[in-house]
């Protein structure tokens, strides 16, 4: 497979991954496709195409969808490949994606989590690898 085909396949997979993630978050929030489309200010068919991986949304559309889902836009940007994943991996993603937390609560939790990680890294011998 050539480089162009590989790049095209990677973009298609990103679109599918972000669509799956949006669908999962929408279902978790118990919001219908139609409701989320209205909240995000996009058409019902367009949102459906995003969820099915047929369309790759812009950062602006992702922000609108995140607002409609009441989750962090950053979590969607990471899933879409627009931003690199922050240090901390799945813990950070889970906190950012939790619709039950306010933005302020998410930031406080992440600050505490990062302080624990820094503290543990400082206490770890230089030759010891961190556990994931």
TrEMBL record:
Superkingdom as given in the UniProt entry: Bacteria
Record-level Gene Ontology MF annotations: DNA binding; DNA-binding transcription factor activity
The keyword Cell division is annotated on this UniProt entry: no
Record-given protein name: Helix-turn-helix
Assigned keywords, A-Z: DNA-binding
Claim: DNA-binding is one of the keywords in the record: yes
Listed GO CC annotations: cytosol
PROSITE patterns assigned to the protein according to its UniProt record, in alphabetical order: HTH_CROC1
CDD domains for the chain: HTH_XRE
Source organism (scientific name): Streptoalloteichus hindustanus
Domain (HTH cro/C1-type) ranges: 22-76
InterPro entries reported for this sequence: Cro/C1-type_HTH (IPR001387), Lambda_DNA-bd_dom_sf (IPR010982), TransReg_Diox_bact_type (IPR050807)
């Amino acid at each position: 497979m050539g480089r162009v085909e590989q790049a095209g396949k990677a973009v298609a997979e990103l679109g599918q991954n972000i669509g799956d993630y949006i669908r999962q978050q929408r279902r978790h929030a118990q919001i219908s496709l139609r409701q989320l489309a209205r909240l995000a200010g996009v058409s019902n068919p367009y949102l459906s195409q995003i969820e099915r991986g047929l369309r790759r949304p812009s950062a602006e559309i992702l922000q609108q969808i995140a607002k409609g889902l009441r989750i962090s836009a950053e979590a969607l940007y990471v899933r879409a490949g627009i931003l690199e994943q922050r240090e901390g991996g799945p813990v950070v993603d889970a906190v950012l994606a939790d619709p039950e937390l306010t933005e302020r609560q998410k930031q406080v939790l992440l600050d505490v989590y990062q302080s624990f990680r820094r503290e543990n890294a400082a206490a770890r011998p230089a030759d010891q690898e961190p556990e994931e």
